[in-house]
Write a structure and sequence with these properties.
378 residues; alpha+beta; 11 helices; globular
């Protein structure tokens, strides 16, 4: 059975975050290491085949997706943890990194199939409670147990520091009441976001920007290597599969690069203070992707509570002018922008041919992503 093992690795505690050059070097070292591995010896000599790997490096470490063929979930996790630990130890630059998490996330039906396929002395207990207890007793690599609370506190602190880089957006755009609203007797305190929740949400957006950009690079590279569109690509993709499915056959390498540049241009304006409004449909979709990535980063470390969710929702409401772009995910609304109803509602063109077209002359779209200028007839 094929499993996707997620490995979360970190740079040494207290070390400065990696700059872009260091992150690029780390990607190369990890990818070269995996290229030399075809299979891994699992428990009792059982062989675990490595099918594919995806490496996404962020300032504080890397997230790895390792695709393996193994007879059981536990065998896949143990084998991947062992090989990642060995790859880190082999590299002088990565030797001090730690493996914080190594796990397979399965749909319940897949989990039952995995359990049913397991056999031999290392087979996990059939009882879920016993299985959970067994995992709780299993030591992490190197003999050090993974401290989830400490890791969450570390990531939280990092996100709070990164929040200052989101320069354009003041706390009220995350739902925090300003002084005048706070003093008003009509203020609705039931829906107030605390300044700390707003700051954590802002930091999560910056934290997730690097991850999102790295993973979109991987998606574009996958399409280039396979010479395929998203619909045709057989290998797993990080994000491009999450775009509206109706256009999947048109998401080719050029589209992937244009979309990546759009994400970079949008998030650059977020952090350098020059942002005013979203420029096109592609930026609306890019922001949705960033919000999803931020929520996933927070949730991964148990930081996505109601207050932070409310802050992200308030941010989305502040930046989006409308939610028309969501109709792209509803097949029943296909073509509404070209209908009399859409014209009456003032819906902007939403076909893929207009995604990189500025909403109006005052909006910004990066020159690389922008449509080719139309030739004028003399």
């Amino acid at each position: 059975m094929t499993y996707v093992v997620t490995v979360d690795t970190s740079i040494p505690t207290g070390a400065p975050e990696m700059d872009p050059l260091q992150r690029a070097g780390s990607v190369a070292l990890l990818e070269d290491g995996f290229d030399s591995v075809e299979s891994i010896d699992g428990p009792d000599g059982m062989e675990v085949d490595v099918l594919d790997t995806i490496v996404a490096v962020h300032p504080g470490g890397a997230i790895l997706k390792v695709f393996v063929d193994a007879s059981a979930l536990e065998f896949a996790e143990d084998a991947v943890r062992a090989v990642v630990s060995e790859l880190l130890e082999r590299s002088e630059l990565l030797a001090d990194w730690t493996v914080d998490r190594c796990a397979v996330e399965l749909h319940p039906e897949d989990a039952r199939e995995s359990l049913a396929a397991a056999d031999g002395p290392e087979v996990p207990p059939a009882d879920p409670a016993a299985r959970k207890a067994r995992h709780a007793e299993s030591p992490a690599a190197g003999g050090d147990e993974y401290d989830a609370e400490a890791k969450a506190a570390e990531v939280r602190a990092r996100m709070l520091v990164l929040a200052d880089e989101l320069r354009y957006f003041p706390p009220p755009m995350f739902g925090v009441l300003d002084e005048e609203e706070a003093e008003s007797e009509d203020a609705d305190y039931d829906f107030t976001v605390s300044p700390e929740d707003a700051k954590l949400a802002a930091g999560a957006l910056v934290y997730s920007t690097d991850i999102l950009v790295d993973e979109l690079f991987e998606d574009a590279q996958a399409l280039a290597e396979d010479e395929a569109t998203v619909a045709e690509c057989e290998r797993p993709l990080w994000h491009l599969e999450d775009l509206p499915e109706r256009y999947a056959l048109q998401y080719d390498v050029l589209f992937a690069r244009r979309f990546l540049v759009t994400v970079i241009a949008m998030t650059t304006r977020f952090t350098n203070g020059s942002f005013h409004q979203l420029g096109c449909v592609a930026e609306e979709l890019a922001l949705k992707m960033l919000l999803d990535a931020a929520s996933a980063s927070l949730d991964l470390f148990g930081l996505l509570d109601d207050g932070v969710k409310a802050a992200l929702d308030a941010f989305a409401e502040s930046v989006y002018e409308d939610a028309d772009y969501m109709w792209l995910y509803d097949e029943s609304m296909d073509g509404i922008d070209e209908s009399p109803v859409g014209e009456a509602l003032g819906i902007a063109p939403m076909s893929i041919s207009s995604w990189f077209t500025p909403f109006n002359e005052s909006r910004y779209v990066h020159p690389y992503a922008a449509d080719e200028p139309k030739e004028t007839v003399s």
